[in-house]
Write a structure and sequence with these properties.
Number of strands: 5
Oligomer: single chain
Strand content: 15-25%
Largest sheet: 3 strands, mixed
Strand order of the largest sheet: 3-4-5
Distance between the termini: 70 Å
C-alpha cells in the first residue's frame, strides 16, 4: 500500500499520514514500499511523529530511542507539530555543519564583492611570515 505524508505549510503545521487510494498522478509524491521507502523516510523528519502525551509517559524510552537511532522526533500537540526532539550528538553535528555553511557563504560573498588577492601574493606573504628553518 502507498501512503502520503501531508504537512500544511502554515504557522500551524498539521502532519498526518493517509493511504493513497489510487496510483494516479495527484500532485503528491507517494512513498514507495521498498528499501527506497526506508531511505526516503530517513530524509524526512515527519516519519518520526509522536504526541506530547506519548513523550510524557515514555520519556526514558524516547530519549534512549533518539540517542540510538540518531533521528529527530517531532512532538505534536492537538495534532499540530510543536517541537523537535534531537539527541545531543546530532545537534552538535548540525551546529557544526551550519557554522561551516556560514563560513562558505561569507567566503562566497567576499569573492562576489571582489575581496580577493592573487595566490602568488598570499604565498609570498606566508613565506615571509613563516620562513623554513
Amino acid at each position: 500500500m502507498f501512503y502520503f505524508l501531508e504537512a500544511s505549510l502554515s504557522t500551524r503545521t498539521k502532519i498526518r499520514e493517509r493511504p493513497c487510494r489510487s496510483r494516479k498522478n495527484t500532485g503528491r509524491s507517494p512513498i514507495a514500499t521498498s528499501p527506497l521507502k526506508d531511505y526516503i523516510q530517513s530524509m524526512h523528519y515527519s516519519t518520526q511523529v509522536k504526541p506530547i502525551s506519548y513523550l510524557k509517559t515514555h520519556a526514558a524510552q524516547v530519549l534512549a530511542q533518539i540517542t540510538t537511532d540518531r533521528e529527530p522526533l517531532v512532538i505534536t500537540q492537538n495534532g499540530e507539530a510543536r517541537a523537535v526532539l534531537q539527541d545531543v550528538a546530532s545537534y552538535e553535528e548540525t551546529q557544526d555543519t551550519l557554522a561551516l555553511l556560514k563560513l562558505l557563504a561569507l567566503g562566497n560573498q567576499e569573492v562576489a564583492d571582489g575581496k580577493t588577492k592573487p595566490l602568488t601574493d598570499v604565498v609570498k606573504r606566508l613565506r615571509v611570515k613563516h620562513p623554513k628553518t
